[in-house]
Specification:
Blueprint: H1 7-16, H2 28-35, H3 75-78, H4 86-94, H5 96-99, H6 113-125, H7 151-159, H8 165-168, H9 174-188, H10 195-209
Helix pairs in contact: 2-6, 4-6, 9-10
The structure holds heme C (HEC) (2 copies).
Residues 3-4, 7, 10-11, 40, 44-46, 49, 154, 157-158, 160-162, 166-167, 170, 180-181, 184, 188-190, 201, 205 line the site of one heme C (HEC).
Length: 212
């Protein structure tokens, strides 16, 4: 598997560091985020992220099954009806093709119940950064996440997919941060930002997590 040179190191750091998620059990969301890696080949999770092979999953817990207007669902999945509760997700993720025979989700399923629980905790956490409601809770940036222009924008976006620890521990040049943002959009399903917003975030990252 091809990785950027900084990839292995950063992943190791991300696994070793304490989770920055405010609302769930210790390590559960982090474990779910890790378990989500194979899913991310087909699903983006950022607020308003593009449909890949599968639909965007931001806010999927509590959402009506098969309801994103911009995604072409199978009739079999749509026929399930109702909303995605944790229990429904647990059944679906155990074996998508048993849950909704004919579904287009070409994935065998997750047999380990603990892994499914972690995945569902992770999916539930994806609502916080969605900005869908005015009352959305503020992101807990945690210690070491400096204030300054671009703080909220950068933190909310990056935190919608993974712990901010993965961002905080970097010391990258401007050029590398720039490439990383592009890579996050092209390969990791991050929603593309307006040029102004992207420039603001790049500046924030360079100022606070740049090369010393
Ligand atoms: C749509 C989801 C998503 C968003 C939004 C997102 N990332 Fe990521 N990011 C990922 C995934 C998935 C990985 C793990 C990729 C891998 O290991 O191959 C990752 C990995 C990383 C890494 C580690 C690189 C590596 O190879 O392990 C850094 C640094 C990073 N992201 C920074 C950011 C920053 C900064 C932002 C916000 C501007 C951000 N990410 C937003 C999905 C996202
Ligand atoms: C090979 C691509 C692929 C992989 C891998 C994949 N999915 Fe999917 N997923 C899809 C497709 C396609 C659909 C739409 C299915 C349909 O319309 O029948 C879907 C639908 C879903 C839905 C329903 C969303 C909605 O809007 O109703 C959820 C939840 C979901 N996937 C979660 C996951 C999780 C969690 C994983 C990893 C364990 C995963 N998927 C892995 C392709 C994939």
């Amino acid at each position: 598997m091809m990785r950027r040179p900084w990839s292995a190191l950063l992943l190791a750091l991300a696994v070793a560091s304490a989770p920055a998620w405010a609302e769930t059990g210790p390590g559960e969301v982090e474990a779910g985020a890790k378990a989500f890696l194979p899913c991310s080949a087909c699903h983006s999770v950022a607020p308003g992220g593009a449909a890949l092979i599968g639909p965007n999953l931001n806010g999927v817990v509590g959402r009506e099954v098969g309801s994103l207007p911009q995604f072409d669902y199978s009739p079999e999945l749509k026929a399930v009806g109702g909303t995605w509760t944790p229990e429904q997700l647990d059944r679906f993720l155990t074996s998508p093709s048993d849950f909704a025979p004919g579904t287009r989700m070409g994935y065998v399923g997750v047999s380990d119940p603990a892994e499914r629980r972690a995945l569902i905790a992770y999916l539930s956490s994806l609502r916080a950064g969605s900005g869908a409601t005015a009352a959305a809770p503020a992101v807990d940036f945690g210690p070491g996440w400096p204030a300054g222009p671009g703080q909220a924008e950068t933190g909310e976006l990056c935190n919608s997919c993974h712990s901010l620890a993965i961002v905080k521990q970097q010391r990258l040049s401007r050029e590398t941060w720039d490439k990383l943002l592009t890579w996050m959009v092209e390969k990791q399903g991050m929603a593309a930002q307006s040029p102004e917003r992207r420039a603001l975030m790049l500046e924030y990252l360079v100022q606070n997590f740049g090369q010393p």
